[in-house]
Amino acid sequence: MENDFDIVKWWGAIVATIALAWNIISYKLNVAKVVIRLTNPICFLDGKVISTKVQKGVSSTELASYCLIEIINRGKAPTTISKIIATGISKDKLEIICDERNFQLHNDVKLPKTLGVGEMVTCRLESCYINRLKQHGTTYIKVYPSHSNKPTKKKVL
Q: Is 22 exposed, middle or buried, given 0-12, 13-18 or 19+ CB atoms closer than 10 A?
């Protein structure tokens, strides 16, 4: 009789462990996943004009170069992007920050921005800011999504 209760106890413990593992895996798979893609350098036709030259009746315009940042939600739940920054981290761990005032979001998007599943938002940062940050050390673009306590970051090459 006592042996039957042991089998039931073990069976209950095994089923409870499997249910717990399933819930943890299900939770981890059903969250938002923010991915950052960078294209650097790139020019935009509506970008800042650096200089204009006229030679033999033909005018040429030099435009500023930018770093294009694509923020994509590849997860299975929506998330809200609250902040985006660029940082330069020196060898002695000093962090220099370029905040969202220097970023130009495309398509009249404002932060905070909710990204649904599979949605993307793009913005750009002028390359002169990236170059200044690179002088101080390793440069990252950091995005702060609402589903995570830590920022998603991408190293700028």
A: exposed
Count of alpha carbons within 13 angstroms of residue 73, beta-carbon side: 24
Q: Where are the domains of the chain?
A: 1-30, 32-155
Determine how β-strand 120-126 pairs with β-strand 152-155.
Answer: unpaired
> Which pTM value belongs to this model?
0.80
Per-residue pLDDT for 152 more than 90? yes
Between 21 and 90, the more confident residue is 21
DSSP state of 99: -
Cis amide bond preceding 112, omega within 30: yes
The topology under which CATH files domain 32-155 is Immunoglobulin-like (2.60.40)
pLDDT tens figures, 121-139: 999 999 999 998 998 888 9
